[in-house]
Amino acid sequence: MNDVPNILGEMNERSREVFRRVVEGYLADGAPVGSRTLTRDFSEKVSAATIRNTMQDLEYLGLLDSPHISAGRIPTQMGLRMFVDGLLEIGDPDETDREKIDATMSSNAEDVSGLLDRVGSALSGVTQGASLVMTPKHEAPIKHIEFVSLSPERALVVLVFADGHVENRLFSPPAGQTPSSMREAANFLNALIEGKTLSEVHGAIKKEIRNRRQEIDSLAQALVESGMAVWEGEGDQNERLIVRGRSNLLTEDGEGEDFERIRLLFDDLERKRDIAEFLERTEEGDGVRIFIGSENKLFSLSGSSLVVSPYMNADRKIIGAVGVIGPTRLNYGRIVPIVNYTAQLVGKLIADRS
To answer: PANTHER family per the record (predicted)?
Structure first.
């Protein structure tokens, strides 16, 4: 895979302008952009042949593609990604769009779910795309938890609350996790989750991690002081207790039991650290995100894009998200400010009501 940021930095002004104009032309009407079209209003006097050569160079770099032999060019998924990350200019929402969103929020209804329904309808109407609205996170006691692997980089956590509410959240699992390790994590959590909120479960696991660490320290202290063992990477996630001459020590005065106890504690510590990381990731969120084409694993719609932004409560905690799903040739410069503005407005309204 080409290093996209480096490609953009190494392109000369002509290449950047050709690339930008091809992408903007494609996003505007969905049609391939030809060299003759670009020469008409290019910033410098250049021939169609020069533009064609530049397009061929951009195609070689994987940024443009030609759907037909004699046609113009369209951006590839990689090209769209580079345009969005490096060349897209984002301002404030258009006044008309803002007024339509504001009108949706002006209702005095106290029902948050009703508000979010109206937000979804307004986003669909303003953007002509499908809307995505994730409701505020629930903090009631949890009855059951399940992790579902969607891809190596994406997973779903299903939370069943004691009051009957069911919630699905998407997250990026810790590296190297498998469907079976997710099942083990869910089984462990379900054994201690009854009557606790997600935050309380997280706190309980962190407490257990501290307790295990203290047990290991007290058991290992005498061994380390006597020179029989030494810590490697102490305090790190991957710390190890290296035993010197272990094969002899295992037969002396029951010390083998200490080593076995330490080994079991280490295994338990690692498992709890993994589970703590699972819980942290289910509560994470970030700013406006744009998923283009096959990056959009959430819906397995390779020809679509998702623009999504979280909204926060009065404590600045992420409690939900709003977004728009549409074709990859979305008008990103218009859609991103709308989604961002809507998310901020929803967060403010919910914070005011609470």
So the answer is: HEAT-INDUCIBLE TRANSCRIPTION REPRESSOR HRCA (PTHR34824:SF1)
How far apart, in whole angstroms, are the C-alpha atoms of residue 323 and residue 159? Answer: 22
Element housing 311 (H / E): strand 304-312
Calpha distance 342→320 (Å, rounded)? 12
With tokens 């295990």, the residue in question is 212
Residues 6+ apart with CB under 8 A from 152: none
Report residue 181 as tokens.
């390790």
Does residue 223 contact residue 242 with C-beta atoms inside 8 Å?
no
Q: What are the tokens at 59?
A: 């195609």
Length of the chain: 354
Taking 70 as the threshold, does the pLDDT of residue 242 lie above it? Answer: no
Give me the pLDDT at residue 315, please: 73
How far is the C-alpha of 157 from the C-alpha of 171, rounded, in Å?
Answer: 8
Whether the CA torsion 301, 305, 311, 317 is positive or negative: it is: positive
Q: Count CA atoms within 13 Å of residue 330 on its CB side.
A: 32
Q: Which two tokens stand for residue 97?
A: 């769009």
| CA–CA separation, 185 and 43 (whole Å) | 59
Q: Which of 107-116, 144-153, 338-347 has the lowest mean pLDDT?
A: 107-116
pLDDT > 70: percent of the chain: 73
Confirm if 252 and 261 have CB atoms less than 8 A apart.
Answer: no
* Segment (H or E) for 248: helix 246-249
